Amino acid sequence: MNLKRIAALLDLNLRGKAFKEQFVIIQSDDWGSIRVPQNKEAQKILNNSSKQLSIFQKYDTLDCNEDWRVLLDLLVTFKDSTGKHPVFTSNFVTGNPNFEKIKEHQFTQFFWDPFYSTYEQFNQEKLNTLEIINQGIFKGIIEPQYHGRQHVNHKKWLKSLSSGNATALEFFNHHMWIYDSINSNGLRSLNAVFDSCEYTIEEVESEFKDGICAFKQAFGQLPQSFIPNNYFFNREWHSLLPNFGIKSVQGMKYGFETNELDGMLKYRRFNKNDKQNSSVVQLVRNVVFDPSSDLMTHNNDSVQWAKDQILMAFALNKPIIIDTHRVNYVGGIDVNNRNNGIQKLSELLQWLVKKFPEIRFISTAELANLYT
Ligand SMILES: [Zn+2]
């Protein structure tokens, strides 16, 4: 590791409560969202782009039964010192755009379907995807949490569509919205739902009501944790979260807000109970693990990089909160992507339980409780 990386990891891990126990939390975003549809035409459009695709445009697609089975089969093979399996916090996007209805209304209104309907629409098997997920929840291996009602900034998207933006319309016709994020590592894309100065607190609340209703319908419980799309969520809205049962906000070192002029504001986050805004606990991920990137960079360094981040966090007695997106574990576009992700997750977990025999696998909700 170079000095710059060491300094960044120190800065990330120095603050916050230290623990005697070595806690491991795994957080994974985007489950339930379609992102790139599994049809050749959509993929052709993306691949024809002159720009370099990100892992999300190349491999991220709706999770299917086999993806869940392979992931669950892997997780049950590991145990911590107390006999507990790793808990995979799966953050669900609880809806997807209804493209037909949006078109019927000439792009003037946003319509969405709950994610369990999306599963029903695309699942090839008799067994519903949701049933497999619920079995994982029952076994304590999956912890479902909330990642928003949809993963598209519908206010900005409908504006581009109704004004006749040719690229937006071409992507729409292939059931995609991600035209503006190609070759952009910037967070300000159509994926960032709450990156808009046009939201009133009442509209935010109404979206939460809808999305969380779909969540409850699917899992029979309320979420206890929320991760905003692309980390955009104005701090003044945090006071809404306890009304929906949400006790913690997941995210990275920085959170983002949009000001009234549509400018971006960045603020530092720490693992703590955020008493200023509400009783909500802020949780900061300190280990980035996206092995799909190895397929793009061919550096094959995702596991080593995760190990370096873990060693630093544990050296400072901090819980490790692993950030690992769904994209790494889905094979609907390319099965090699799922094989690669599962194999590297296995490698990382094997190393963890061997190197740190005392580790404790806990859920995001359990971690949040330690800060209250
Ligand atoms: Zn996301």
Describe this structure in words.
- With 372 residues, the chain is an alpha/beta fold.
- The chain has a single domain (3-11, 21-369), classed as TIM Barrel (Alpha-Beta Barrel).
- The protein has 14 helices and 14 strands.
- The strands form 4 sheets. Strands 1, 2, 5, 12, 13 and 14 form a 6-stranded parallel beta sheet that branches.
- α12 runs parallel beside α13 (335-355).
- The protein is globular and about 60 Å long.
- The protein starts with a helix and ends with a helix.
- The model has no long low-confidence stretch (mean pLDDT 94).
- Bound molecules: zinc ion.
- The site of zinc ion has 5 residues, from β1.
Task: Offer a few descriptive terms.
372 residues, alpha/beta, TIM Barrel, 6-stranded parallel β-sheet, 4-stranded mixed β-sheet, 38% helix, globular, binds zinc ion
CATH level-four homologous superfamily name: Glycoside hydrolase/deacetylase
Number of domains: 1
Overall radius of gyration: 20 Å
Q: What structural class do the secondary elements suggest?
A: alpha/beta
* CATH fold title: TIM Barrel
By CATH reckoning, the class would read: Alpha Beta
